[in-house]
Amino acid sequence: MSALLRFESVALRRGGRLLFDGLDLELGAGKALQVAGPNGSGKSSLIRLAAGLLRAEQGQVERSQLAMADDALPLDRELTLKRALNFWRGDVDVAMERLGLSHLAQVPVRLLSSGQRKRASLSRLAASGAPLWLLDEPLNALDADGAERLGRLIADHRTSGGAVLAASHQPLAGDWQRLELRA
Amino acid sequence: MIGALIARDVRRGFAGAAWLPIAFFLLVAALVPFAVGPDAQLLARIAPGALWIAALTAALLPIERLIEPDRADGVLDQLALHGLAEESVAFAKIAAHWLTFAPLLLVAAVPASALLAMDGAALARAETALAIGTPALAALAVCVAAMTAGVPRAGSLAGLLLLPLAVPLLIFAVADAWLLEAAVSLLLTAGAPFVVGAAIRAART
After folding, report:
1. What is the mean pLDDT of chain A?
2. Distance from the CA of A94 to the CA of which of A80, A136, B105, B125 falls in 20 to 30 A?
3. Residue B141 and residue B63 in contact, taking contact as beta carbons nearer than 8 Å
4. What is the CATH number for A13?
5. Domain boundaries in chain B?
6. Are residues A118 and A104 in the same domain?
7. What is the pLDDT of residue B171?
8. Do B81 and A66 count as a contact with CB atoms less than 8 A apart?
């Protein structure tokens, strides 16, 4: 499979409502696609479908190894940030450095602010080494510095052959293809 | 990854409220002499059943923290993305819960047996029955936790689901029918990961 993510005539229904159908998309190495649309249009569902956490009603989804970051924080709140991130393995030190979290390595996760938690979630993604990144509202809770660091992280990931699919209602920095979903 | 998940859940169990079900177990055992009176012969006769009722009700206490926190925090999703089957996650959860629940329960059965006027032989039989049955209790607790994850007032619902499922175990355990108890325990423990896996997947839709 040359594409890191491919949808072929995909339809998704949730709660009895058809979110989209006949959706085709292909994401190759170095590519980035932003999924936009109003609340409830199915952006997050598309991300979860791409991750394999939801099943398409129709069509085929092919995916490579991937990592996903959304608004959930899958880190043990009682552990220090570094120890909590180590559970998920990968190059945690470098990822924390890239997101500006190194000075918080020994701070318990429960004491982090919402913006720091978002950075922690993104550093788990960056440490994963997966070629395909799935981001659900990646700018939520990030300040200007966090958004800039994320932009650099994504650019480097794409340069090294990775691909990114992001659902966001905010504009993302850089060169993104765009898919607009309707409510 | 399974080993890391078991170690994580055991650590979280002991760091959290692993002592709470055990304290509850002892409290229920301590209430029995107040309820039926100090007649030692009567206490010794009902002791095995009383111990099991205490164990079953104690098993209900940790249910809300077995699956729901990891579902809400996206841990279950991330484990799936790391290639871990939901059934493997369930196995790890059951093993970790058994490790945090059963050894403490077996130790607590010793003072509980004194409260219930049990002699050494009766205690040995009760400990054997608990050792055989606790894997099934842990499996049932994780099953019910998965089936009620995200449901409002899951704690109340958990009792209604778990206690009837534990009846065969209870019958064979108090009758000292250890082979039959072991068979039931094995069936419940072996089947639970598939039930939990299906429940985790269903909760995502």
Report:
1. 92
2. A136
3. yes
4. 3.40.50.300
5. 2-204
6. yes
7. 94
8. yes
